[in-house]
Design a protein that fits this description.
heterotrimer; A alpha+beta; B alpha+beta; C alpha+beta; A: alpha+beta; Enolase-like, domain 1; 5-stranded antiparallel sheet; 4-stranded antiparallel sheet; 11 helices; globular; B: alpha+beta; Aldehyde Oxidoreductase, domain 3; 8-stranded mixed sheet; 27 strands
Chain lengths: 291, 761, 155
């Protein structure tokens, strides 16, 4: 039993936004795997809920005419993993989604909820960062689009205002076509765990040289972060193991992981460098290039 | 014949269908729910408690603080009572406390209509404290000017023994000696069913407590002591229980449930702890810190081993120093031909209380010994497996501690069997190529010895009642408790073996009720088949005799010409000739107007032997140096537990112990801040209980010796499998990387520090 | 108290309830007498409360009861019919995958969904592990559970 004081069910995004603006204390609930945990812990700020669990408008995966991919923010991870469109276009999102919790969690937790929770360890976000995903947000004052890399403001903080809803995640064709990708979640356990470090890479290699590298990390800074110094450094380099090691070292310049009881800063930095190396290598192989 | 066969568990269908009822599955009209108010500091005195806001909440029925509970100190350890006052567990707890000794200590309790309201109210209670220094390292705890955690001081117990010869001479005869520091971590049992109990009264003077406990009869005594309430007026019922592993060999919530129902006019009150409370506010495994020394002579003989430990028992003694005592004692029969010194001190600390946990101090001591053995062999240039084979005990060796001969000792055969199964010799050669680079391979082995029960330290009493039912089936009542390990099934097999009655006609009553279950101290110390089995054997013999005597009275055929086969009584010389069926005999015994009566047998028996059991783990691992991770490629436990009564259940025990030990080896630890006593990880996200993806394929095998002191040739098996995997994994890491971890768990975080120190990364 | 009328099927039986919106599906199923739904953690980590909702394994402790409206729910009790346990249940018994039994009903439901989904396909132990990683067990070291699931897929 949860200490829920008010409950409203929204049947449309518009209605959800109206309910949000009518109640400054209300919180949205979709999959429930974050909100219900907070309620169980006694966090009263979650006791007024607006239920968007069943909201069809924010579900679905579609390929647009221009080959852009749209993922409904209300899609549960299992549906993301099992989507043929995602498998054929942006399999890294399915890979990353497969590392979330366990099957039961993936069967209900949503990809939008994962982002809106604001956790720096969110399993899906690094993959969306290297795909330069755009987030479609609708609010009482209209709609706007925000790049996923600008969605996070800090630990637990995101750009959504109280009256806004994350509707969809868009990945442009130019950001996935021709890229090799890979994601690795480093955690203490192989399931049901929080990432110590998450690392995603998307790479385009042309005639043995790096054309574009996108490298993103979670838990490596106060918010999910692209290693832009390493990315810029990599352009034009031969795709060799030696250079990958150099790129991996560069990645450390953009990141500033926490020293916490979960893991020391030194340890995280070592894992960041190791993952950068391995994930870039795997992405190059995924791009069909022999090292 | 039933013993030795893979009989299906008696409770299998009840459990797979979910129909088996556990404590939470019983409800009573009007049941109230109680929730503790726990301290948010690790050491201090309550200055004030304000319950106003909580009391005002609708649905709150009562709030009790430390001022409202009896001024009685009690001991919670699930040990049999000792007639020697000097040998009783420390009486160091009140139901609620003003002096809080760990983060989560119990200062008040709320009773409400629902758990939701009770938890909400508990959060609304404001407690102010005067803080005291937090003592969590041996140096601070044992400092001359240290704050006293309990009025009796900070040392719970200490002892030392030197056995098997003269230590000075043993050192002198050594070619090589070494000394290393080791430590083990605080881990938690993580039984799937949290601690839960409820209590109610059906009149003004009798209390019933239903509890998820391993020790119903002991719980009855402790409730009686804690409340100063007559023991005979307390009834403890144990339904199905969702695991215990020692955490429920302690009385945790039962006395409070009984207190609350007494206070509230007999209303049914339930205490159902959360997972978070269970992790840090019940019991844990004692961390050990200390050293191990050893010596080897020029012939490869282990000349001596010398282990010195400090055991941290946390805020309350619970099983206290008994853990270190047992750990030291049980490790003496593995390599019994050497001089053995063991020195242990158990101290209080401002941490969650440690209590009994599977194998009771032995995994800690063996981690020290088997690490030391490995390094000693390497120092002497001997293969660590050969070193162990040479020094492993043999049948007829004398247990240096109690000076009694070891009648069955299969350790050497276990080592030889494991060596073959894992292909040790070939892999040893092959893996020489994999000792540099980031991916390395290694092999490890570790041995253990254990005991079957607690005798002669404690009494080993078991009682059984068997009754023939009118339909010819048999009901077996025992005070020994089924906690998932399969004791009910094994008892049915034993009873069948001895009486001749088929197992499907034998029903072992799984629920204990102290009002009618015969006296037994419960499930712990791997005593069920060894100690309980003796009582089953003697009762079954008596029941058979009583049945056959009645058959003689009924049919005129002499009893000594009869035997029971399945559901019939037949002639021994002519087994196909039915003299009378058990059903007909039982109907006659129950309902004949001029003869008979209910045919029963009851025996209470004290076992006065204690057979050591043995085994070892072999493990093959891959270490990814850069990722600081260990991947177990193959792991095998080999056990000498005497005769195996039920191979399926036996394997299940081994797998479970291995899984827990792998967790303790590589991942699990309760993280507590040395300075503040804060518990960082009392939740499932941060306490790294292994999932199915973290546990490799598990293999096991047995060397079936025949133990002459047990009626069915069996020895302990429940706890032993958890002992040797962790040191075997540690020795494999040493083999693979040349780095010798000395602390548990060997988690990526810790391996990172070690690899960095050794220049591997 | 806010309530909402919901209608759902549990183990083949249609139920209509005026349900307190604060309740989890775990609360409601247990109140219906389906105590195979166990609470081991309350936060969706242990899987002891797993039921199938439209044939998909879910942690009922982290699932609002109102969401069950219109759904088909299966629990371990319903897998045994006319005194006969299901194939998955029998496999758990035969493999020795049952000990204390507290995680068992939840595991059985996860396995049931798994076996129905992958029947006839080639499945390795890694996939079995991945798809059972939301259920914790402390008694078995998971070995016999993996064996039980493997045996269900064999024929």
């Amino acid at each position: 039993m949860f200490d829920i004081k008010s409950y409203e069910k929204a049947d449309t995004v518009k209605q959800a936004i109206e309910l949000l603006s009518a109640n400054p204390d209300a919180k949205l609930i979709a999959g429930g795997t974050d909100v219900l945990i907070r309620l169980r812990e006694g966090h009263e700020e979650f006791s007024s809920i607006i239920d968007i669990h069943h909201l069809e408008e924010i579900k679905g995966v579609e390929m647009q005419d221009n080959m852009d991919v749209r993922i409904g923010a209300g899609m549960c991870f299992t549906d993301v993993i099992e989507s043929e469109i995602i498998d054929q276009t942006i399999p890294i999102v399915a890979e990353a989604s497969g590392t979330v919790g366990g099957p039961q969690v993936r069967n209900v937790a949503t990809i939008g909820g994962n982002l809106c929770n604001g956790a720096i360890s969110a399993d899906s976000v690094a993959s969306l960062c290297v795909l330069d995903a755009t987030l479609e947000i609708e609010g009482i004052d209209g709609a706007r689009e925000v790049p996923v890399t600008e969605f996070y403001l800090g630990p637990g903080k995101i750009v959504l205002t109280h009256t806004e809803i994350l509707k969809s995640i868009y990945i442009k064709a130019e950001n996935y076509m021709g890229f090799g990708t890979h994601y690795y979640k480093y955690a203490m356990r192989n399931a049901m765990d929080i990432a110590t470090i998450g690392c995603a890479a998307a790479i385009k290699v042309d005639e043995g040289k790096v054309e574009t590298l996108k490298l993103a990390f979670t838990v490596a800074a106060p918010k999910p972060t692209r290693a832009t110094t390493a990315e810029q450094f990599s352009v034009g380099l031969d795709a060799t193991s030696e250079n990958i090691e150099k790129i991996a070292k560069k990645a450390l310049e953009d990141l500033n992981p926490r020293d916490s009881w979960r893991a020391s800063k030194d340890f995280r930095l070592h894992i960041i460098e190791t993952l950068a190396k391995r994930v870039i290598t795997a992405a190059i192989i995924d791009a069909g290039v022999q090292l | 014949m039933s013993v030795g066969k893979p009989i299906e568990r008696l409770d299998a269908v009840a459990k797979v269908t979910g129909k088996a009822r556990y404590t939470e599955d019983f409800t009573l009209q009007g049941m109230k729910h109680a929730v503790y108010v726990r301290s948010d500091i690790a050491h201090g005195m309550v200055k004030s408690i304000n319950v106003d806001e909580a009391s005002a909440l609708t649905g709150v029925r009562a709030i009790f603080t430390y001022e409202d509970v009896p001024d009685i100190l009690f001991a919670t350890a699930g040990h049999p009572y000792s007639t020697d006052p000097g040998h009783r567990d420390p009486y160091d707890r009140n139901l609620l406390t003003k002096h809080v000794r760990y983060e989560g200590d119990e200062v008040a309790i709320v009773v409400a209509d629902s758990e939701l309201i009770a938890r909400k109210a508990a959060r609304l209670i404001k407690v102010e404290y005067d803080k005291l220094p937090v003592l969590n390292t041996p140096e601070r705890i044992l400092a001359d000017d240290a704050e006293m955690i309990h009025p009796t001081g900070n040392i719970v117990g200490a002892h030392e023994f030197v056995v098997g010869g003269d230590m000075a001479e043993a050192i002198k005869s050594s070619e090589h000696t070494l000394e290393n520091k080791y430590s083990t971590a605080m881990v938690q049992h993580f039984h799937l069913e949290n601690h839960i109990a409820y209590a109610y009264m059906e009149d003004n003077e009798n209390i019933t407590v239903v509890s998820s406990t391993q020790i119903p009869h002991i719980a009855r005594r402790i409730i009686s002591e804690a409340l100063d309430f007559p023991m005979g007026k307390i009834k403890v019922i144990k339904p199905y229980i969702g695991g215990g592993f020692g955490a429920k060999q302690d009385v945790v919530v039962e006395p409070m449930a009984a207190f609350l129902t007494l206070k509230m006019g007999g209303a049914p009150i339930q205490i159902n702890l959360t997972r978070e409370e269970c992790l840090s506010c019940t019991r844990t495994r004692h961390p050990f810190l200390g050293t191990a020394k050893g010596g080897i002579d020029k012939n490869g003989k282990l000349t001596f081993m010398d282990v010195e430990v400090v055991s941290l028992t946390g805020a309350y003694a619970s099983h206290g120093h008994a853990i270190a005592q047992a750990g030291g004692a049980k490790a003496c029969t593995m390599y019994p031909r050497s001089v053995i010194r063991f020195n242990a001190t158990t101290v209080y600390s401002n941490m969650p209380a440690a209590g009994a946990m599977r194998a009771y101090g032995t995994p800690q001591v063996i981690f020290f010994v088997e690490n030391m053995m490995e390094e000693l062999a390497l120092k002497a240039g001997i293969d660590p497996l050969e070193f162990r084979l040479k020094n492993a005990g043999l049948p007829g060796d004398i247990n240096p501690l109690n000076k009694k001969p070891i009648l069955s000792h299969g350790l050497k055969e276990c080592l030889e069997k494991g060596r073959k199964l894992i292909d040790w010799d070939k892999k040893k050669k092959r893996y020489k190529k994999f000792k540099d680079g980031t991916i390395r391979r290694g092999l490890g082995v570790a041995c253990f010895s254990y005991a079957s029960g607690t005798y002669p330290v404690l009494v080993e009493i078991a009682s059984v009642r068997m009754a023939l039912v009118q339909d010819g089936s048999v009901h077996v009542l025992t005070g020994a408790t089924e906690i998932g390990q399969g004791s009910d099934t094994v008892f049915a097999q034993m009873a069948s073996e001895t009486t001749g009655i088929s197992t499907d006609k034998i029903k072992v009553i799984s629920t204990q009720d102290t009002d009618f279950s015969p006296f037994d101290t419960g499930s712990y110390a791997s005593r069920q088949t060894y100690v309980g089995g003796q009582a089953i054997y003697k009762t079954a013999e008596k029941l058979k005799d009583n049945i056959l005597a009645y058959a003689e009275e009924m049919t005129g055929v002499l009893a000594n010409r009869l035997q029971i086969v399945g559901d019939k009584i037949v002639l021994i010389e002519q087994p196909d000739k039915t003299v009378v069926t058990l059903k007909d005999l039982s109907i006659d015994a129950h309902y004949h107007k001029d003869r008979g009566g209910q045919i029963t047998a009851e025996v209470s028996y004290k076992t006065r032997t204690n057979a050591p059991s043995f085994g070892c783990t072999f493990v093959d691992i891959e270490v990814d140096i850069e990722l600081c991770k260990v991947d177990i490629k193959e792991i095998i436990n080999i056990h000498d537990s005497g005769k195996i009564i039920n191979p399926i259940l036996a394997k299940g025990q081994v797998h479970g112990g291995m899984g827990m030990s792998i967790g303790a080896a590589l991942a699990e630890e309760m993280l507590i801040d040395d300075e503040t006593g804060k518990v960082y990880n009392n939740n499932l996200l941060d306490y790294k209980m292994p999932t199915i993806m973290d546990t490799p394929d598990l293999k096991c095998d047995f060397v079936e010796t025949e133990e002459p002191t047990a009626s069915y040739g069996n020895k302990s098996l429940g706890e032993p499998p958890i002992i040797s995997p962790a040191p075997a994994i540690r020795n494999a890491i040493l083999d693979a990387t040349g780095v010798a971890p000395s602390e548990l768990p060997m988690s990526p975080k810790r391996l990172f520090e070690l690899f960095k120190l050794e220049g591997l990364i | 108290m806010i309530t909402k009328e919901i209608e759902f099927t549990v183990n083949g039986q249609l139920i209509t309830l005026d349900v307190d919106i604060r309740k989890s599906l775990l609360d409601v199923l247990r109140e219906e007498g389906l105590t195979s739904i166990k609470q081991g953690c309350g936060v969706g980590e242990c899987g002891a409360c797993t039921a199938l909702i439209d044939d998909i394994p879910m942690d009922t402790c982290m699932y609002l009861a109102v969401w069950a409206d219109g759904k088909d729910i299966r629990t371990s009790e319903g897998e045994s019919r006319d005194g006969q346990v299901s194939k998955v249940q029998q496999a758990y018994i035969d493999a020795g995958a049952v000990q204390c039994g507290y995680c068992t009903p939840g595991f059985i439901m996860t396995s049931t969904a798994f076996v129905e989904k992958y029947k006839g396909q080639k499945v390795d132990r890694d996939l079995i592990r991945k798809e059972h990683s939301g259920n914790l067990c402390r008694c078995t070291g998971y070995e016999t559970i993996v064996c039980a699931v493997e045996s269900c897929l064999k024929d």
